[in-house]
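Q&A FORM
Asked by: J.P.
Topic: structure of LLM class flavin-dependent oxidoreductase

PROVIDED:
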Amino acid sequence: MKLSILDQSPISSNQTAKEALDESMKLAQEGENLGYTRYWIAEHHDLPGLACSAPEVMLSYIGANTNTIRIGSGAVLLPYYRPYKLAEVFNMLATLFPNRIDIGIGRAPGGSAEATNALSDNFLQQVWNMPQSVNELLDFLDDHFPEDHKYSNVSASPLPEISPVPWILGTSKKSAISAAKNGLPYAFGQFMSDNDGASIIQTYMDSFTPRKKGDRPTVILTVSAVCAETTERAEEIALSSLVWSLLKEKGEGQLGVPSIQEAKQYVLNETEKNTLQKMKQNMIIGDPHIVKKKLNELQATYKVDEIMIVTITHSPKDRIQSYQLIAEEML
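REPLIED BY: S.T.
REPLY: Here is the structure written out as tokens.
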């Protein structure tokens, strides 16, 4: 099984944003050393506790400090951008870091309504126009438009020898069908969805139309996991991100991911206790043996090519160790 890393670049309560971004780079380096297939970083806007608003900037930094691991956006939010500009940016990355660049495409706002309005005057219209925007982006990446097209003489330079690989990211049948109709690989965000992922992925497989000769349906399943030497320790570590999620739902959590001690001191009401238990059901928490077992079960259930793991902890050391333990058990 291929394993990969999704990084949301979380800021802990004792960190600056720069320290969090430096830890993201260190995570990519360690992922490369451990044999993870790819490292993707997400785009968020004005969300307290998440440091990366510009994946393309971080990918330049990470690419320059790694050598072989594939790197990409998970996701870059297409409705905010003209397809031509994204094609230029990711072609530039693919020129600098040959045969290593993925462009994961999403359509979520990635922030508050106020941040969305600050970024775009017509975000909802661009979400509606996503099919056209995806097609235009693919044509720029292929450097091929029909002769009578208005952009037939425009190239998204520099043109790399090996183009960035486009992916569609999502949590719904709509995103699965979009990926399938465009002949693109698909990443399903199980960690942020209550939908029937197996059914959605099957829809993608059944609807897939090859974009180029030899293309086949390819799926990544993205899950949330925390691994430690013992399950008890993993439960302790995971409490930080779980309590942080509860705080964010209340409009709090501006100080970032709380420490284990801070999380333990948070008094849960009955509703929050139930919410926390539901969130845990959508995570993998345990020692290496338990995590391996659950990841293998997910692969069998979803029939995926690759599993991508997102891990949020207060301590960067705990996060690195979680990925290390999983790699030692499975890679």
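FOLLOW-UP: The chain has one domain: 2-228+284-330.
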